[in-house]
Write the structure tokens for this entry.
Amino acid sequence: MGLLAQLKNKALTVKEQLRPTTDFDPATLPWIDLPEADIATFVKNFKPRFPLTFNLEEKLHFWQKNGYVILENVIPQELLDAYWEDVEELIEHPEKYKLMTRIDLPKFEPIQERLIKDFPKEDLKGKYVKLNDFHQLSETGKNLMTHPAIVNFLEAIFQQQVVVMQSLTFMFGSQQPSHQDFPWVTAKIASHLAAAWIPLEDITADSGPLYYYVGSHKLPKFNFGNGILSNQRSSRSPLEFADYLDKNCAAQGYPRETLLIKRGDVLIWHAALAHGGGTITNPDSTRKSYVCHYSTEQALPFHRYNPFATPVVQEYHGVHIYKHPEFGDQENILKAKPVS
């Protein structure tokens, strides 16, 4: 680290220790997180981009109280099939594609995130695999993450231009400890974040299903020793964070629920909803899923891999998806297939 970088890091450390951020900024909160949010009046005046396939007022009230919603039976099976075909093509021919992939197995330490071609093919079909931002290569992935039902709900809660932040694709359960997304998936405005969890198969109890603490988006924020965001200057660990969430959610009476969601449904959750991956009790049971994070153009006016450049914008169903600054002609290399 150069002298200038060292001085900057030291200045940030002192600033964070003296004035750590303890909560989201009230001035930039999404409208629905404000105490005075009037859902009934909002719904009367809201003009959805697409025909609604769910009761918006009911879902917004549920979101406000619980920190998540499930949109039932909104995604066509053919679209899910088409996306998984792209995933299988990627895994069968990793040498053809430029994609960063993470496999959290000890044998790959200390570099567990690499180009997909640098992992043995047999390991790509196993556990602890995360395919990072596969939507950049897959047009079907872009169409799936911006399905009209998802877009209608995101535009309602943000009331701003929605942008895609990142995606993760899984074959097996992550078994990840309890966490909230906003300390890790960071934009310029931490509260401008939501995630969609799209099952690519019916999820079973033995596959390490997602769990979440209902209402936990209202829990006081964890202090990493330098504020609510985790970074290289933080003095407290992810395991301390998980312990805080598990203990305090129980103490506050936020029930832990397990997500046994059906293919065709979508879970959308709040930036601060505490959640994690359950234990895989059947090692052969898969948990195929597509997890997408979204922000707003105000909070994320750049691709996160190049924050100092104006991004090249692609628009899918009204949502902005920035071209990856390093992928070149790999962007959209897997073309969308016709879906009825």
Remarks:
- The mean pLDDT is 94.
